[in-house]
Amino acid sequence: MSGWWRNARTRRRAVFGVCGTALVALAVVLHDSRDKNTAGVLVSVIAAVVSVAAFLADALRDGAEPQRPAEDVRRQTADALALAVREQWAAESRLRRLQDPGPLEVCWAPADRWLVDHPENIRPGVPLPAPRNAGPWADGIAGAFAALPRRRLVVLGGPGSGKSVLALRFTLGQLAVREPGGPVPVIFPLASWDPRGSRLRDWLAERLAADHRLLAASADGRPTLARALLDTGLILPVLDGFDELPRSAYAEAVRHINSELDDDLPLLLTSRTEAWAATVRAGDVLTAAEVVELLPLDEEQAGSYLERTARPGARDGAHGETVWTPVLRRLAREPGPLADVLRVPLMVALARTVYGDTSRDPVELLDPGRFPTAGDIEEHLLDAFVPAAFADCGPERGAEARRRLALLARNLERRGTGRLAWWELDSALPGLVRAYATGLVALAATLAILPAVALARASDHGAGAQDSASVLVAMAGQTLGYAFGAAFLLPRRRGPLGRRDSLSKRLVITTVVATALWTGFALTDDLRFGFRFGAVTDGLLPDLFGSCLFALLLTMFFGVAGLPRRPVPLGLPWTGHQGRATVLVCGAVLLACGVDLVGAVLLGVAVTQWTALAGAMCAVAGTALLLGGTRRAVRDSPSLPGRSRISRDFTAGLARGLAATLLIGVVASSVAGTAAVAVTVLKSGTRVDLDGQRIGEWRFLERNGLRTATTHRRLKGTLLVPDRGKLAVAYPAGTTPPSCEIPLLPGRRCAAFSSWHTVFESRAGSVTVRLTPGDTTAPGADRRAYAANMRSVLPEPARAWLTDGPVLGLVARCLPPILASGLLVGLVGGCVCGVYRALSAPSDVVRAAGPRSTLRTDRTASLARGGIAALLAAVVCLPVVLLSHDWGGVATAGAQLWVPVGATALALSAWGRFLVTRVWLAATGRAPWRLMAFLDEAHRRGVLRQSGAYYEFRHQRLQRRLAGAVPAGASSVEERLDVLG
């Protein structure tokens, strides 16, 4: 073999070039084809296969990567984590204006000794430094922490005393002096820990894996890389807000911390003083940990900071005076409630913002009539903070911003969290809207893909009648199916595919619900003539049941794939230059095919809806891949280890998903189909012998086991010819056959008929209809057709008489198409599982550049995932369409299944849920239409702080004040501080 061919990259490029050349040649050859629709769809299908194959082939490159030592992996991961944490908190420090002109320094002192462990356990013979100003952090709190042998420190303080700011500055200070491969300080808000339900190390590992998705991978024999970093001392936990735990859990929390700490796990913990005192009384101290307490600000500290950060005063233009100068002079002579307020760092920061507005004067805070107590002043500052932050937009805008932020704060308080995530905002929706959100988005996505035929084909999944009532009922059924499936078939959180307990649960639920729906279908429809997909039903209830089951099965696909009930943002799975290049090429191929097919439809070269759908789906998937291959999109996504992850996940997802969905599809269809046949047998009742009788214009005869029902009344309708030489399917006037033309089935067509001599013929319960055009009965002039759709023209006794036959005959007419649908469900479901697992990369919501970047990336990933899933589902359905020749209407079911697969992928994504939330909140006046822009503006103005992809209110007291959590009867400063902080 020559040297150039030995190179794997050269081989890949050569194969890809050959495939592309073959695709172009095929397009040229098919350009002159008689069947333009078939040619167009073949081009799009082959383009999809070539693109996906090339993408997977590139993912397979050099799959056998050399194994790096576990210690090197951990240290490199720790370095990457340190960079992410530094970026996160440095940005937050700038937004809090800690450097403008500098932070508000706070004094600290050793806490009361009864709150601390024995000195010999902490640092024998070496006392903690004396009380002093924090000064430079390297020789302040950070220096005291470094001097402790066990490096364990508890920082106490009152509400708003600066504990969270201390944790932030401590983290940045530790990162500034950190050596490569050293421990990484990570802030953990303790409010989300349940000490009675999980151990400390387990919770720390879970939080790390949830916030930094790359740490969720298993490593070094441990469940997650996060746990490996913890166990090897590469994480320095900064536990912020011990007092935010339930009071009843204080003692249990300390016991957990003491029992799980070792020399490899340093610790810094912040808490309110009274909460820590209650903990020590009820439980124990923190072993080997020093305890310090932040002191209130004195008059000089607060005054100096306010004057350094204030605008110049307008009084006589005195040099060095500010708007705070007269206030501070007054306080020096007559200390009042304001002096107590300005001892709290949070209140000083709020006062700086509120009175940075030229329309306000801090002198008003000295008015004893308006502000008789310190609590009144604090409430005033909290209430005025948001309008002051939006002051340059006008008073109306400031009041509106406060109202909208108050609604968000109330939602966070109700959920018991301080983190505002765009993918969790659906909790603000009413329960009914939230339940139907998935179905609404799926229908909207389908309508967007089918602009020309949406209303005409909306009920094709259940009925053949195309009236508006059937359309509405089908839509209602689908929303019900999506709502039930999202509530019961999706897992609570994303987990491994194919777990036995979850598979058994979905198997039971799907089988039970499918049996109930098929039973309802059989009760409200007449299945004695047999069952066929796309057939005409009796009334609207069968349409409702069929559409509900259809949506339920689509949801089941993604439940088996592991999509959680409350989806989280997903990233893009491709990284690096080669990955981007492959994605861009695949996207360009798909987009070119999509534009070509849509152009053919617009120019009249191809006329079927399926050609337009294939073009639209190729265009959507191609555009999403092109957007996902840009530098910006890749930058917003995590760098996943292992270049063969995509192919490995696709193969595992396809194999396991295929097995799971085939099992569910076959079992559910068998049980449900048997139940439908049993119901049909039971409801048949007694039959009247009509041999030789007349009912109206109908005459009934039975000769040699052949029963006939004949009329000379003119009957009109449409004949659907599935393929050459196949039995036609008759549809009565007022109904429309589904999919009169399907590419790849050139013999399929529809034709109107007008029969003057109609004969229903039955042998052993199997009924066909013979239609004779014109007023003649000449041999060869009639046409046989499937009779079930024409049953509505028969008298009710005639239906029972014609379908009278053995039960096995009824089983043969009804059960095979239902069982075939179970197999189709399994095949498509396996494809969905493979695509979802391969293209669902975890998003690092902490390292993210911001909430908007995760939203943008999740939208791109959702569109790419939905488009590719739909195209591969079409590829799976292709042999069904070709080989079945529309036996039992299975070709119709397969042709109509692939587009809703893509729509369901969008509806079940975090971005899809957010769309409904955004529209609902804006329509009800609870949020602006540009919700993310509003939150981003609140962040820039300092009302919200950003933690990766999360927003948080600047302080918990601000959140609670906006949410209206202060009891009306609370009057003393202590009571108000306890409630607000």
Tell me about this structure.
With 981 residues, the chain is an alpha+beta fold. It is built from 35 helices and 19 strands. It is 54% helix and 10% strand. A hairpin with a 2-residue loop joins strand 9 and strand 10. Helix 18 (431-449) crosses helix 31 (898-907) and helix 28 (807-839) runs antiparallel to helix 29 (851-884). It is elongated, with a radius of gyration of 35 Å. The N and C termini lie far apart (75 Å). The relative contact order is 0.11. The model is unreliable at 1-6, 29-34, 59-66, 131-139, 452-466, 639-643 and 965-981 (pLDDT under 50).
Morphology call: elongated
The average pLDDT is 79
Number of strands: 19
- Order of neighbouring strands in the sheet with most strands: 2-1-7-3-6-5-4
The helix content is 40-55%
> Compute the gyration radius: what is it?
35 Å
Kindly summarize this structure in a few lines.
The protein is an alpha+beta fold. The chain has 35 helices and 19 strands.
From the structure above, extract its key features.
disordered C terminus, elongated, seven-stranded mixed β-sheet, alpha+beta, five-stranded mixed barrel, 981 residues, disordered N terminus
What is this structure's SSE topology?
Elements: H1 3-6, H2 8-31, H3 36-59, H4 70-95, E1 107-110, H5 119-122, E2 132-133, H6 141-147, E3 152-157, H7 163-176, E4 184-189, H8 200-211, H9 225-231, E5 235-240, H10 250-260, E6 267-272, H11 273-282, E7 290-294, H12 299-309, H13 325-333, H14 337-341, H15 345-354, H16 374-389, H17 395-415, H18 431-449, H19 454-457, H20 468-488, H21 500-524, H22 541-561, E8 570-571, H23 576-602, H24 609-628, H25 631-635, H26 645-684, E9 694-695, E10 698-703, E11 706-711, E12 715-721, E13 728-732, E14 749-763, E15 766-773, E16 783-786, H27 796-802, H28 807-839, E17 841-842, H29 851-884, H30 890-895, H31 898-907, H32 910-923, H33 931-940, E18 944-947, E19 950-953, H34 956-962, H35 973-980
Helix pairs in contact: 2-3, 3-23, 3-24, 3-29, 4-7, 8-9, 12-15, 15-16, 16-17, 17-34, 18-20, 18-31, 18-32, 20-22, 21-22, 21-26, 22-26, 22-28, 23-24, 24-29, 26-28, 28-29, 29-31
